[in-house]
Amino acid sequence: MDAVMFPGQGSQKPGMGSPWAVTPSWSVINTVSEILKTDVAGLLLDADAPTLQTTQNAQVAAFALGLVLLDAAAAAGLRWDAAAGHSLGEYTALVAAGVLSIEDATQLVGERAKAMQRAADADPGTMRAVIGLDIDAVEECCEAADGSAWVANDNAPGQVVVAGTHDGVATATAAAKDRGAKVLELSVGGAFHSPLMRPAQEDLDLALGKAPFADARVPVVANVDAQAHLAHQEWRPLLSAQLCSRVRWRESVLRLADLGVSRVIELGPGGVLSGMVKRIAPDLQRVAVGTPAELDDANR
């Protein structure tokens, strides 16, 4: 069994759309641009790193490129039996599973990006990666911040992301360093997957209430509970909760393996998720597709 997976915000980099700009699948960018009234091609081809770091631009760019790769993979004859996406990538996974159309997913991502940008501007926060401690130890470090830092991403064994206020994250990560952890700064514009995103959740709920969802053609493993979902009515509450809940990526990959998945195909630049999978479930075959040439290799 094969599963497709999609990275989220943080995967973006200047010029990341260049390998795909001459492919037929680039036409998807026109669709996304028209819906969002945004120069998405400019974000993917010409934008510099500071421009791509802003929450709204980062989410639109990462999502749009994921749609291009998804379209190219389907056109190349790739088929999959399950899907998952990391944070924002979950929306692309829902398109891959037939739960959302490209148009409806684009509308939702646009609303999500704007809502998260507003929330981040109103209540600034940050995120840092803690390397070398397990999830329980990082949770204990967050307790030192007195309710201003939380586990945001349980990415892989020994790789956990903390989100919260600037002071809270500083306190939590200082406690982690005292335990021997390495701490990495992340280029993000807010404290995602934490209670600081509560205002964004309220705004997103309005858009989710209007969006049509379909039953999935293949199971999608959700960030919030690391369970496989097929029924359309489950996705509104899951996507709503995702904004303020931790991304259970480690558990999600293990769930894919439990479903019988033997190969994961990452559609997005950088291969970050594939690196996580190697640490979580080393027996799973991993294919990272970030360029047309890599897609050709994946389809052999």
Describe the structure.
- The structure is a single chain.
- This protein is an alpha/beta fold and 300 residues long.
- The protein has 2 domains: 224 residues, Malonyl-Coenzyme A Acyl Carrier Protein, domain 2 (3-Layer(aba) Sandwich); 60 residues, Alpha-Beta Plaits.
- Helix content is 47%, strand content 16%.
- It has 13 helices and 10 strands.
- It has a 6-stranded mixed sheet, sandwiched between helices. Strands 4-5-3-6 form a 4-stranded antiparallel sheet.
- Strand 4 and strand 5 form a beta hairpin.
- The longest helix is centred in the first third of the chain and has 21 residues.
- The chain is globular.
- The two termini are 15 Å apart.
- The mean pLDDT is 93.
In short:
With 300 residues, the chain is of the alpha/beta class.
Secondary structure: elements and pairs:
Elements: E1 2-6, H1 27-36, H2 40-45, H3 49-53, H4 55-75, E2 82-85, H5 89-96, H6 102-122, E3 126-131, H7 135-143, E4 149-156, E5 159-164, H8 166-178, E6 182-185, H9 198-210, E7 220-221, E8 228-229, H10 235-242, H11 249-258, E9 263-267, H12 272-280, E10 285-289, H13 292-298
Parallel strand pairs: 1-2, 1-9, 2-7, 9-10
Antiparallel strand pairs: 3-5, 3-6, 4-5, 7-8
Helix pairs in contact: 1-4, 1-6, 4-5, 4-6, 5-6, 6-9, 7-8, 9-10
